[in-house]
C-alpha cells in the first residue's frame, strides 16, 4: 500500500504536487530505492504521513529531492531524473547529509588531544599490515592539521574502535551489501561515539581497484572527530566515494577549515614566527634552514614542520606548515631543487624523494634516492641545486657532491668529488642551496654564501635570514 501510494504521488502532474519524470518510465525498484535513500540520508519520514493524502506525500518527496539535488550541485527540479538517480546509486558514506540538527548534535568534539584507536577485526581482503598502514596514514592526515595525536592499542577499549562487518552489526545502521553504503562512523563521545564501521561486503584494497581503504578511512575518521558532510566535491568529507591516488591525496581547504574550526591548527612550534614581532624566529641571528628552493616565482625556506615563502626582492614573508600544503609529505625536508623549465620541484628526506608539479604531489612517489644512481652507502641528501644552463643537478652529501644529468637521467661519471675542490670558498659541508640569477646561494648554519657561476667564487657573505629584511 505504501509503495502504491508513492507511485500515485509520482504520477500527479497538476497542482504542483510533484512534477517528476513520467512515472510509467520509472522502474518500481528505482522508486523504492529513491524513497529509502531520502529516508536514510535526508530525514524523509514517510511513516508519519497520512497515507491517504497523495498530495502531502508528493510535496514532501519533492522537497527532499530538492534538498538532495541542491546538496550535490545538481539541477534543482524536484524530479527523480536520471542524473539524480546516478548520484543516488554512487557508493557513499552511510552518515546522513541532512540531520535534524546542525553539524552534529551539540557540535561535539573530543575534550582531549591524545586519542587511542583499536582495530577490532581485519578484512580478509588485505594483509593486516596494509590495513594497519592505511588506518595509521588516515589518522595522520588529520593529525597533520590539528593538535590531535593518535595512538594504536591492541587490547581494551579505545576512544575510536574500528571494525569490519556484514549487514546488521548491532548499531541499528545495517550495511546494504556491495557498492552501496561503504562505511559509517559516529561523532565524538563515550560508548559507540567515535567508532568507525566498514562494510565487509566491499572489496577493500590499497589501490584503485575495489574500494580504497585509506580514502574511506580518512572520510570516516573525519566524522569520528566531529565533521559533517561537505558540499564541496573536492573535499574528502563529500559523501560520495571518489578515487584519487593516495600518494597525491591532500585535504581540501574546506576540510582543513572544518576540522580546525573544531580543534584549531597544530600546536605552536618554537620556530613558528609571529610576523609583526621584532623578536620573531625569522630574525633570529642563529636561524638555519633544512632546505631552500625556488618554486616558480617564489622562494621556499624549509625548517622542521614549517616553510617560509616569499617573492624574490620583496621582504614580506609568509609561513605555513608543510602539512597544510602537502598533507601526505613528511616534515623535516632535507633537500630540495626546482627544474624551472618543467615546473618540477623535488623534495628529499632520508632515502626518499617526492616530485611536486604545479604544487601538487605526483603519483608513484616517493621513490628511493638509489634509483637516481646513488650507492647504498648514501642514506640522505644534504642539499641539491639545478643548473639551468648545463641541465645538471648537483647533489651534496657530507663533504662531497654528485652531478646528475637531467637530460640523460643518469649520474655523470667521475663522481663524487670533494665540494672544496670545485666550489672555491664553500664547504666542507652545506645545509642548503638554491639558484637565482646566475648565482648559487649556499647555506651553512646561520651563514649564507653568494657564489657566482661565471666567476666560480664567493662574491658575498650574508646571514641566512638576510632574505627577510632582518
Automatic annotation (TrEMBL):
A motif (Cysteine switch) lies at residues 91-98. Keywords: Calcium, Disulfide bond, Extracellular matrix, Hydrolase, Metal-binding, Metalloprotease, Protease, Repeat, Secreted, Signal, Zinc, Zymogen. Zn(2+) 2 binds at residues 93, 219, 223, 229, 237. GO terms for biological process: collagen catabolic process; elastin catabolic process; extracellular matrix organization; negative regulation of endothelial cell-matrix adhesion via fibronectin; positive regulation of epithelial cell proliferation involved in wound healing; positive regulation of transcription by RNA polymerase II; protein import into nucleus; proteolysis. One of its GO terms (cellular component) is cytoplasm. Pfam families: Hemopexin, Peptidase_M10, PG_binding_1. It is found in: Secreted, Extracellular space, Extracellular matrix. Zn(2+) 1 binds at residues 169, 171, 184, 197. Disulfide bonds join 283-470. Its main location: secreted. Residues 106-265 form the Peptidase metallopeptidase domain. The keyword Zinc applies. Ca(2+) 3 binds at residues 176-177, 199, 202. Can bind about 5 Ca(2+) ions per subunit. Ca(2+) 5 binds at residues 336, 384, 433. SMART domains: HX, ZnMc. The active site is at residue 220. Ca(2+) 2 binds at residues 159, 193, 195. Ca(2+) 1 binds at residues 125, 202. One of its GO terms (molecular function) is metalloendopeptidase activity. Belongs to the peptidase M10A family. This is Macrophage metalloelastase. The gene is MMP12.
